[in-house]
Structure formats: C-alpha cells, structure tokens
Amino acid sequence: MNKHFNQIQVAVSKINRQHIQLFFLVLSLSLFVLGAGAPDDGGNIGR
Amino acid sequence: MILLSAILLGLPVGLVAARAQQRAYQPPTLAHIWLIFVAVLPQLAILYLPEVRRQTSDEMTGILLTVSNALLVTFAWLNRKQSGLSLMLVGAALNFTVMAANRGFMPISPQTAGRLVPQSILQDIATGTRFGLKDILLQPEHTRFEWLADRFLPPVWLPYQFAFSLGDVFLALGVFWLFAFPHFERRKPL
User: In this complex, do A38 and B106 lie within 8 Å of one another by their Cβ atoms?
Assistant: First the structure.
C-alpha cells in the first residue's frame, strides 16, 4: 500500500507547470479548431 | 475529428524535434486564450447538447455561429505573429467568410453529401435545410463562395469519409505547424 502511495507521489511530483500549460494549450486549440473548422462526416444524420 | 488529428500529429513531432536537439519542448505562448472559450462554449452547447439544439432556431444558430467564428478570427489575428497562427487565421477567415455568406452555415452540395450518407436518407433532406452539425445542403449554383464550401473529399478507398473546406485545410496545417515548430522564426531579410 505504502509502495503504491509512494509511486503515485513520485508520478504527481513529475507533473510540473509546463505539463499543465501544455494540457491547457492542447485543450484550448482543440476547442479553436472545433469552433473554426467545419468538416462534416454526416455523423449525426438520422441519429 | 480530422482537425484534432492534426494536433495529435503535430505534438509528437514537436516533442521528437525538441529531444533531437537535446532541449525541453517549449509549448507556444498565446495571448487572449479566454476568447476561445467565450467563442466556442456557446457553439458547443447549441451543436452538441440535444435539448439546447432543439430549442434553438436555425436562424439563431446561424447568428451564433457567425459571432463565434468572428471571435475566433479575432483571436487568430491577435496571435498572428505566433508560428502557425497565420495559417490558422487564413483558415478561420475563409470558413467565416463562406459561412457568414450562407446564413451562418457551411454549405455542402447534395453531390458531396451523397458520399457521406446513403441516398435513401439524403433524398429526405430538402436543399436549404441543415445537414450534420454546421452544414447546410445547398446546390452549388445557389451557394455564395462555393469554392470555400465543404467540397473536398478524401479518396474513396479511405474507410472514414468526410467533407472539408479549403479553410479546414489551412486550419489543419496551421495547428500542426504550431505544435510541431512552436518557436519557428522566419529568416529576416539582411
């Protein structure tokens, strides 16, 4: 149990400011291309 | 989906390029990111939430899409000096132009739409009505800026079929470039 806790702690400590910044950037630009782009695969037709 | 895959391709390319140069990957820095959220969240609500979509008229949806696209063009303009953003600005502006000129929706011809859905379904959709999320079914001769519409298709043998516009091509190239080469600088003339 303690070993698992330590492993999680080490993993979390590796998440630094830059990782959060990158995640936020990917999220924002994904929203941008979803918003500005308009490709259509006919996905929701008849659904 | 196809545009998101440009991000998924660009990011690993940028990470590998940074590692090859033995430096840490520096994500691009963008200003006024809040504009994206202000622009896109209402758009996502009216397109993806069935209850909101049902209660919003097509006319109102067209207006909201136009306003949303205008805000996204503004964001791209404010960040146009960032690598890749100038291409994204062109893409967003092209899509904004054709959509604003066609009641706020992206035009698609019945011929192009016929590659995406079976003819049995397509014949029940009248021209001038909505098709899919952001598209409107229009004959090419009734489409303003037809060359900017969803008129391109991937090869027939590709299992995933979708229609895309010239603006979408610029957007995909721009977002790929932004993540792959976030700090690329053009050489200044001597």
Answer: yes
Distance, CA of A19 to CA of B53 (rounded, Å) = 35
Q: Which residue of B has its CA nearest to A35?
A: B40
Of B89, B67, B61, B66, residue with least CA distance to B76? B89
End-to-end CA distance of chain A: 47
User: Over the stretch B122-175, which tens digit does the pLDDT of each residue have?
Assistant: 999 999 999 989 999 999 999 999 999 999 999 999 988 999 999 999 999 999
Residue B34: inside a domain = yes
Give how many domains chain B has, as a whole number: 1
ipTM of this complex: 0.91
Give the span between the Cα atoms of B184 and B87, in whole angstroms: 13
CA–CA dist A8, A12 (Å, integer) = 6
Range of the domain at B114: 2-180
d(CA A4, nearest CA chain B) in Å? 29
Q: Do A34 and B44 touch (CB under 8 A)?
A: yes
Q: Please give the residue of chain A at the shortest CA–CA distance from B161.
A: A41
- Give the pLDDT confidence of A5-46 residue by residue, as tens digits: 787 777 666 677 778 888 999 999 999 999 999 888 877 665
CA separation for the pair B81, B67 (Å, rounded)? 23
Look at residue B15 and tell me if it is in a domain.
yes
Within an 8 Å CB–CB cutoff, is residue A16 touching chain B? Answer: no
> Is B150 within a domain?
yes
Report if residue B188 sits inside a domain.
Answer: no
Report the alpha-carbon distance of residue B79 to residue B70 in Å, rounded.
Answer: 14
